[in-house]
Write a structure and sequence with these properties.
Blueprint (H helix, E strand, L loop, with lengths): L19 H17 L5 H10 L12 H7 L5 H35 L3 H8 L2 H7 L6 H14 L6 H17 L8 H8 L12 E4 L2 E4 L9
Antiparallel strand pairs: 1-2
Helix pairs in contact: 1-2, 2-4, 4-7
Amino acid sequence: MEQSATTQMSLADLYAFSTGKDGWTKWIKTSQLEIACAPTTAAQEMLSGILYGEGVKTPTHKTLEEVKALNPDASNEQAQTILICSTKTIEARLEKHPAALIQAHVTLINGMGKDAMDKLNQDSEFRNNSEQRRPDPMVTWNTMCRIFYEERAGKGKMSKTVMQNEEKVKLLTMSQKPNETVTDYNLLMEPIFPSHLSQYKTEGNDTDHSLSSKKRSKTS
């Protein structure tokens, strides 16, 4: 049974900026597992979508035509019944949606260590979003990805080129350490190129929470 959207959630590990991009990738993986095992709530589903790169889906009502398309064998009377049940479910989810947005934002920032929060608080986009009555967790997440990964070497094309070259050198020289597990080694290998981060970064605001830099509307 789904619990209250305001049920307190927390992430086991705090991300430390000093651990670098490797630490950021490990934090994402650990947080994915934490959220996947958490009780099902509107906020839990929202955080899961963010961390797994699926974005945040805003509940939307279905039409009778959509219900019939999903249930081609249903009679008109059955389709009407399904529509009524669907409408009630969506209304309940919409009621919890604003609180879930806030909780997703709070859970993300509560997963940051002091040095990571110091970096975030220096960013105007993060501050402006956090000061809103209802902070958007998409803005929170995108800012984290940008600061903790994309802009670690600085801003601009030259800095990005330097970061990519450093990652290529790292790939060529990386080997599994004697005391390192296969899982830990694989976690370090995954973010070698910035393009790998596209599965984690999402964009959008309220009705359009989409993947990567190309906005694609998603509804549920």
